[in-house]
Amino acid sequence: MIGMKKYSLPVLINIFLSGLIFLPQQLGAQNKDSIQLQKLTDWVTNQQYSFIAQSVNPLSGRQRQLDSQYDLKVSKEQVVADLPYFGIAYFSPVNPSDAGIHFTSKTFEYSLTKRKKDGWNVLVKSKDLNDQQDLNLTIYSNGKATLQVTSNRRQAISFNGYIIAPDKEKTDTH
Predict the structure, then answer these.
(1) Cβ contacts of residue 150 below 8 Å, gap of 6+?
(2) 144 vs 64, 89, 137, 160, 174, CA distance in Å?
(3) pTM for this one?
(4) 73 DSSP β-pair partners
(5) N vs C: which end of the chain shows fewer Cβ within 10 Å?
């Protein structure tokens, strides 16, 4: 028994010291995640964020990867969309440059509900556009998000991406 204690004591000391080395790293990572979640919560509840689209999923067609040039900006004053569109349009646009999802809505409903497991569901309904746009945004606590856009004039389309602060540039990577 005494010989076993001699051999296990150095092992226990090494385990203890390893814990002291890695514990601050783990606590730092948890603290960083907590701060990021608090920031995200503030952005979503205060209606001050941008959704950056990374990929698009049209109903007819395949998923396409996008660059960081496409976004949806949400504030209490307005919702601004600059997103591509791939799919079937029920009405042709008068101007061919209007082929994407490009609009600014200053009169809209903003509905926020907490998801049971993770994040929030956001519904934005424009009220001042010729073609009413309904935006269903699912935001997860890690900052990732999906956006589904429905309209009376086109097939629905969805996007995958992430949420950033409204004052960050589109070129930020997540």
Answers:
(1) 133, 134, 136, 156
(2) 17, 28, 10, 8, 9
(3) 0.75
(4) 50, 80
(5) N
d(Cα 111, Cα 125) in Å, to the nearest integer?
A: 9
Please count the other Cβ atoms lying within 10 Å of the Cβ belonging to residue 39. 15
Contact indicator for 104, 78 with CB cutoff of 8 Å: yes
Q: How many CB atoms lie within 10 A of CB 37?
A: 14
Provide the total of helices (H) and of strands (E) in the chain, helices listed first.
1, 10
Per-residue pLDDT of the chain (174 residues; tens, 9 = 90+): 454 445 466 665 666 655 555 555 544 445 566 778 888 999 999 999 999 999 999 988 889 999 768 999 999 999 999 999 888 777 766 666 667 888 999 999 999 999 988 899 999 999 888 878 899 999 999 999 999 999 888 889 999 999 998 776 544 444
Structural element, H or E, at residue 106: none
CA distance 68 to 27: 32
Element (H or E) spanning 124, and its range? strand 120-126
Alpha carbons 96 and 75: distance in angstroms, whole number: 28
Exposure string over 141-166, b if 16+ CB within 10 A, otherwise e = eebebbbebebeebbebbbbbbbbee
